[in-house]
Specification:
Largest sheet: 6 strands, antiparallel
Number of strands: 6
Radius of gyration: 17 Å
Structural class: alpha+beta
CATH topology of the largest domain: Alpha-D-Glucose-1,6-Bisphosphate, Chain A, domain 4
CATH class of the largest domain: Alpha Beta
Strand content: 15-25%
Number of helices: 6
Number of domains: 2
Strand order of the largest sheet: 1-2-6-5-4-3
Distance between the termini: 42 Å
Shape: globular
Length: 177
């Protein structure tokens, strides 16, 4: 209950202190919400289904020494997430179709990052589904929260998600390349 009261107060405070756009404010509010709802470091891997949200969520604690930046880069490359830098590089490539290329690689993706602390990457997956990976921690240890969202109940069953959910921590810790 306190968290729900905290968000509007923080939003009002930010609006009064800064000249943020509404989209920046919404983005901050989502990040704050994400941070306050994350499990404590050291939590054991778990899977839960929330019928009202139509998603499967798994939380993985990575081995000690797996830094947040390293884990995020591994996940980004293996699963094909696009960062803002990737889109900018495509846009500035000097090729005649640079704008189209940048638009194509950014379609259906979302990338937020504070290097050294956390990353949130999201993209369309298997048609109309969505995969979101949040990596938090520091240079000593990290954890990954994987959310697979679908409007198709069949896509939320272990037969559909188990291989992906098994690969995520293996990619993040470097045991699967």
């Amino acid at each position: 209950m306190k968290k729900r009261l905290l968000l509007p107060a923080m939003t009002a405070l930010l609006m009064s202190l800064t000249a943020c756009s509404q989209s920046q404010l919404s983005q901050f509010q989502q990040q704050l919400s994400d941070i306050t709802s994350q499990p404590a470091p050291g939590a054991q891997p778990s899977t839960s289904k929330e019928a009202d949200r139509n998603d499967v969520v798994s939380v993985y604690t990575l081995p000690a020494g797996t830094g947040v930046d390293t884990a995020a880069i591994r996940l980004k490359q293996h699963f094909g997430f696009s960062s803002d830098e990737d889109v900018a590089a495509a846009r500035n490539s000097g090729q005649g179709n640079a704008g189209w290329s940048a638009s194509a690689i950014s379609e259906g993706t979302s990338w937020l990052a504070q290097p050294g602390n956390w990353y949130r990457m999201s993209r369309n997956w298997a048609g109309n589904d969505r995969l979101t990976l949040e990596v938090t921690g520091n240079s000593k240890g990290s954890y990954v929260t994987a959310t697979y969202r679908s409007s198709n109940p069949e896509h939320l069953k272990p037969a559909w998600t188990s291989r992906l959910m098994k690969q995520i921590p293996e990619v993040a810790d470097g045991s699967l390349k």
